[in-house]
Design goal:
Radius of gyration: 21 Å
Number of helices: 7
Strand content: under 5%
Number of strands: 0
CATH architecture: Up-down Bundle
CATH topology: Four Helix Bundle (Hemerythrin (Met), subunit A)
Helix content: over 70%
Oligomer: single chain
Structural class: mainly alpha
Shape: elongated
Order of helices and strands: HHHHHHH
């Protein structure tokens, strides 16, 4: 292998490493998004099987989640710090989780969860799920805010890596 080909290969490896470092800043967000995607998908399927109009609720949430997933997929080709669609999705899901908690002891509970018995155990289960959802949204929004402000640990590693390979 001649010197020029070796330099091109080395440069390509460095660029790929840098892309991967930028992309991996959102790793936690991608996992949490996957959890929300499948949770809402299963909920949607359960409501469709129950022939319930409440299926619109997780259906709309899935639309926002898919937009966030699309945004995250495009991040590999061009690194961005401000994932606007993902931030909006997590804000909407946080509000939704709070609203779902508020509807636990209302007639809306039967509309949102027709496959559950309307008793204390079911209410506690849904409360637990929604509290976990809200906490995951808050953690994700905090992480997205750190990435947006470039105050996350991975960004410091990226800056250090750039200095080590003498890249700007």
């Amino acid at each position: 292998m001649n010197r020029m080909a070796k330099d091109n290969l080395d440069k390509s490896r460095k660029e790929t490493s840098l892309k991967t470092l930028y992309f991996n800043r959102f790793l936690l967000i991608r996992y949490v998004t996957a959890v929300f995607f499948f949770t809402n998908l299963y909920w949607l399927c359960s409501l469709i099987i129950s022939k319930n109009v409440g299926a619109v609720v997780p259906g709309l949430t899935l639309v926002f989640i898919i937009r966030a997933v699309w945004e995250q997929c495009t991040m590999y080709s061009s690194h961005i710090d401000n994932a606007r669609k993902t931030i909006l999705t997590y804000k909407i899901m946080l509000i939704e989780n709070i609203v779902y908690i508020a509807t636990l002891f209302t007639p809306i509970f039967k509309k949102l969860y027709p496959f559950l018995v309307d008793n204390t155990k079911s209410h506690m289960f849904i409360l637990f799920i929604n509290v976990i959802g809200a906490v995951l949204c808050l953690i994700s929004l905090n992480r997205l805010n750190k990435i947006k402000n470039q105050s996350d640990k991975q960004f410091k590693y990226i800056k250090q890596y750039k200095q080590n390979i003498k890249m700007k």
